[in-house]
Amino acid sequence: MAKDKSLKSKPHKRKDLGPSDNSTEIMDTEVNTKRKKMDADEAPAQMSQLTNTTDDKKRKKNKKSTKEQVNQAAEQAEVLDPPSCPEGTAEAEGLEDLSPEEKRVLERKLKKIRKKEEKKRLKAEGVTLEQTKPSGPSAQQQALDYLTCWAENRSQWKFQKTRQTWLLQHLFDSEKIPDDTFSVLLQYLEGLRGSGKDTTVQKALSLVEESGKAPEDTVVQQRAHRAREVIQLLS
Predict the structure, then answer these.
(1) How far apart are alpha carbons 29 and 15 in whole angstroms?
(2) CA distances from 136 to 35, 133, 141, 169 (A)
(3) How does DSSP assign 166-225, residue by residue?
(4) Cα–Cα distance, 202 to 210 (Å, whole number)
(5) Is the pTM of this model over 0.85?
(6) Between 21 and which of 17, 69, 110, 188 could a Cys-Cys bridge form, CB atoms 3.0 to 4.6 Å apart?
(7) In whole angstroms, what is the distance from residue 148 CA to residue 140 CA?
(8) Tell me, what's the pLDDT at 91?
(9) Who wins on pLDDT, 160 or 22?
(10) What tens digit of pLDDT does each residue of 74-122 get?
(11) What 8-state DSSP symbol labels residue 158?
């Protein structure tokens, strides 16, 4: 009997948790609570980021679609005659929702296309677009003004080789240099020196000699008359 009593299993006693085990459970609970809270806080931010990304994609897609519409409208205008698409209008089918800036872009494109088509049409018809440039005073007028300034406003006059060369080249031409101006030119020639003087005298002598061969030619005789005056002045 004693042996049987010793073999009987004793009831298992539950081991009490010490203070350290309780603190571990509390810490685990707090960590789980904080983790859940952090997950809950991060969720709206992630959703907001996803929403922004989606909105950006939509805006880019809409912008691309609008740009394609503008390009399509511009391409359609290329096959239209200029009168069928009046300048200054950007009204095209399906583009009523364009912003003012997009309409201005379309108008500029259409204007360039019309200008290009107009050039092609004129070129095909053999018409060239000439740019008119404002014409300045002629060489003759500049030379005569130079001589007038020498005679009337000596303080403002400045020697110009180009103007003097023109006067010497047309010295004997009454059409280029009228008689009243020729008298002033003779005064100007009094100060002529160097090779310019020698060349002028040689030219005058040739004209006098030529006049002897054509006594009835009034133009030749008129030139010879001026040549004699020049020779008398410079010799």
Answers:
(1) 22
(2) 88, 9, 10, 21
(3) HHHHTTT-TTTS-HHHHHHHHHHHTT--HHHHHHHHHHHHHHHHHHTT-TT-HHHHHHHH
(4) 12
(5) no
(6) 17
(7) 12
(8) 46
(9) 160
(10) 665 554 444 444 444 444 455 566 677 777 888 888 888 888 888 888 8
(11) -
The sign of the CA dihedral 166, 172, 178, 182 is: positive
The answer to whether the CB of 151 falls within 8 A of the CB of 187 is yes
185, 188, 193, 194: CA torsion to nearest 10: -40
The model's confidence at residue 145, banded by pLDDT at 50, 70 and 90, is very high
pLDDT tens digit string along 149-183? Answer: 999 999 999 999 999 999 999 999 999 999 999 99
155, with CB counted inside 10 A (0-12, 13-18, 19+), is exposed
134: left (phi over 0), alpha (psi -120 to 50) or beta: beta
Buried b (16+ CB within 10 A) or exposed e, 116-138: ebeeeeeeeeeeeeeeeeeeeee
Unique residue bearing structure tokens 């707090």: 30
Residue 144 near residue 171 (C-beta atoms within 8 A): no
pLDDT at 1 over 50: no
Q: Which tokens sit at 213?
A: 């061969």
